[in-house]
C-alpha cells in the first residue's frame, strides 16, 4: 500500500509524486521500446500518444498500489 505522504529529508511529499518520478523510468523504457518497434508510425499525434501512455500506466500503477 502506498503511503499518503513520504518524508524525504524532513520534507513531506505526496506518495503519488514519488510514484510518478519512479514511473518515469519505466515509461522511458516503454517509450524506447515503442519507438524501436515503430509503433509511433501508427499514432495520429505521437506526443499526445506518449502523454496518454504515461497517464494510463500511472493510473494503473496508482490503482494497483492504493488497493
UniProtKB/TrEMBL annotation:
Organism of derivation: Pseudoxanthomonas composti
Taxon lineage: Bacteria, Pseudomonadati, Pseudomonadota, Gammaproteobacteria, Lysobacterales
Regions that span the bilayer: 12-35, 47-66
InterPro entries given in the database record: DUF1656
Protein name per the record: DUF1656 domain-containing protein
Pfam families referenced in this protein's UniProt entry, alphabetically: DUF1656
Keyword line: Cell membrane, Membrane, Transmembrane, Transmembrane helix
Superkingdom of source: Bacteria
Amino acid at each position: 500500500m502506498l503511503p499518503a505522504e513520504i518524508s524525504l529529508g524532513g520534507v513531506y511529499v505526496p506518495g503519488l509524486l514519488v510514484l510518478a518520478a519512479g514511473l518515469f523510468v519505466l515509461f522511458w523504457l516503454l517509450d524506447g521500446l515503442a519507438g524501436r518497434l515503430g509503433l509511433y508510425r501508427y499514432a495520429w499525434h505521437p506526443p499526445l500518444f506518449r502523454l496518454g501512455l504515461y497517464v494510463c500506466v500511472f493510473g494503473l500503477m496508482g490503482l494497483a498500489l492504493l488497493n
